[in-house]
Amino acid sequence: MTAVKVAILGFGTVGEGIFNILKEKRKQLKETLGVDIEVAKILVHNVSKEREGVDASLLTNRFEDILALPQLDVVFEAIVGEEPAYGYLDAAIEKGAHVITANKVMFAKFGQALQEKAKKYGVQVGFEATTAGGVPVIKTMETILRVNDVLHIQGILNGTSNYILTQMRTEGISFETALKNAQDLGYAEADPYNDISGQDAFKKLMILSALAFGKQPNWEDVKVVGISEITLEQVQQADANGQRYRHIAEVSIDENGKIHAEIGPQLVDAAHPLYAIDGVDNAVALDTNYIGKITLVGPGAGMYPTASVMVEDYASMLSKQSVVVPV
Amino acid sequence: MTAVKVAILGFGTVGEGIFNILKEKRKQLKETLGVDIEVAKILVHNVSKEREGVDASLLTNRFEDILALPQLDVVFEAIVGEEPAYGYLDAAIEKGAHVITANKVMFAKFGQALQEKAKKYGVQVGFEATTAGGVPVIKTMETILRVNDVLHIQGILNGTSNYILTQMRTEGISFETALKNAQDLGYAEADPYNDISGQDAFKKLMILSALAFGKQPNWEDVKVVGISEITLEQVQQADANGQRYRHIAEVSIDENGKIHAEIGPQLVDAAHPLYAIDGVDNAVALDTNYIGKITLVGPGAGMYPTASVMVEDYASMLSKQSVVVPV
């Protein structure tokens, strides 16, 4: 039985979800993977705040305590923003730890650097949770891309925007009222700029572009439009015509290897794979050369959807290690 | 550079697709996996029939020629029916070869035996192509199940039935006319019994049950109903009510660990994840404990969708072997 220690950076919604799942599934993961996974440290701002079910000795506000852990096998990162997240993960890789992140802002910018560094240090980087929450688009694309070429990606990558557009249509309310409802329900932040401006979807699309095409477009060449200009009248007129507004992030590659990316509202009809995606769900439609079009749909955010795909990232890493196949 | 030899059993639509993809992607797979994959033998009934692009020396009608291949690393099986398919794969595993199958009839019955045997012989079994064609439901479930419990599965698993139900609704034609159209377009066999009776969906559902719950229900306890009793009037009445008939295969597990499975037409409304799935597409909606509901949609059959997920199975096996991570 291998015993490993894991650290969690951040104890917001996602960090707490990771902690709970690792606790609930510890016995099962021991049986299926032959590895005993112990959460050894959690990085938080405020170590004196009491957190239910969490032994206070696990908490630290010093990242050095994380790096000093013996047998540190993986760092789960569930904080926000580029720094200090990138610096933390970079340092963890140097210590020989796998890293798993939900941080799309950091990863859209530093994902390649992290992965190159991880390769050099013989560890892995998990980033399923950066894009489309619980929808397993990263692992699906990794598998598909071993044989298929992905040619074109269209996604609903921001659940808040999709919730607002859905509410405007089904409840006949204005953008402002729908946004207020989303905030009341905790779907939108107090400052909803990143969600409704398209910037959140933009970061996720850049991650998908890097995975599908091996590169991102120049960020400044990408037209990014949010949903705040869409009026109730437009939504109702579209509905009367059998169409719906969807906030779609799309990227494709042309014959010359040039990447084209665009983010903004689109009118789609019932035959479009994203027409039926309502509420806070995310969805990604992939055009591939052999399979054709496949579409993945699921929750775009939330404590357990996001946390569980991060733990799956780790379980996949452990499972690859444990496979012993004589070639 | 490792060099491996592969064999293909059957050279119908799927067998030919595998052959073409392995030829087209040989260089790329060499670069990405470090393995040179050579198709060394193809098992066919008629070795004297000319097949474009295929060197006649590759063809054999004797399975012993396959087993005698030096460096045989994998056998792709694209024939139909329980036997001789099972016997062939069983023998290939004994020779130390991985096996990859698209044969749901064989796999629903002998999948467990094959996997147990493969474990004993240190090889792997790929079966993504047995269920829902190009939709990556098997690998997605394998990943999800490392952490999530799958509680309930609903699928449109037979593209022919879905095409017929869609045509009845959108074209206002009878079951008989829609079936005739499906046959003219090559979607339905000359003998469409397996498709329209639900038997094809039944086999695929049994494979999903085994994967999700570790067991299948007793086959005789499963109610299997096809679509032939649905009238145009029923379809039109449903449409007027905002509902659609879908042929749904579903399976769940109760608190006592008992499996409940059922296959037949269901009326669903617009909020149902399978409502929007039209034409020959397949779709699978999975209810899980942490992620919630995720839905996968894509082509349920066809030369390249099916063949490419089989080659992906093999690429995944090779990629696991080539990962070297110091634990």
From TrEMBL, chains A, B:
Residues 136-313 form the Homoserine dehydrogenase catalytic domain. InterPro entries: Asp/hSer_DH_NAD-bd, HDH_cat, HDH_CS, HDH_short, NAD(P)-bd_dom_sf. It catalyses: L-homoserine + NADP(+) = L-aspartate 4-semialdehyde + NADPH + H(+). Residues 10-127 form the Aspartate/homoserine dehydrogenase NAD-binding domain. GO terms for molecular function: homoserine dehydrogenase activity. Its EC number is 1.1.1.3. Keywords: Amino-acid biosynthesis, Methionine biosynthesis, NADP, Oxidoreductase, Threonine biosynthesis. It comes from the Bacteria. It is an enzyme of class 1 (oxidoreductase). Pathway: Amino-acid biosynthesis; L-methionine biosynthesis via de novo pathway; L-homoserine from L-aspartate: step 3/3; Amino-acid biosynthesis; L-threonine biosynthesis; L-threonine from L-aspartate: step 3/5. It holds the Pfam family NAD_binding_3. SUPFAM superfamilies: Glyceraldehyde-3-phosphate dehydrogenase-like, C-terminal domain, NAD(P)-binding Rossmann-fold domains. Belongs to the homoserine dehydrogenase family. This is Homoserine dehydrogenase.
